[in-house]
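WARN no homologs supplied; continuing
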Amino acid sequence: MIVVNETMSFAETIQDVALNWIKTDYIPLLKACPVVLSVEFFQVDTQQGTDDTFALQIRFNSQEAYSQ
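OK structure emitted
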């Protein structure tokens, strides 16, 4: 299994728009891709105590699936 982890944060002025786009448009597109096993999106708890860090994890069955 291959896990791709993208950690991201957004400027406060665009965070709501960005999170909405990821949840309503981007994640459904990823899930529709036949080589993607699963997609998870969550907020990351940081030592700095900020709540503007997020992680997108995409799982693939194999290296071959990931390379497609």
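The first strand starts at residue 2 and ends at 9.
OK
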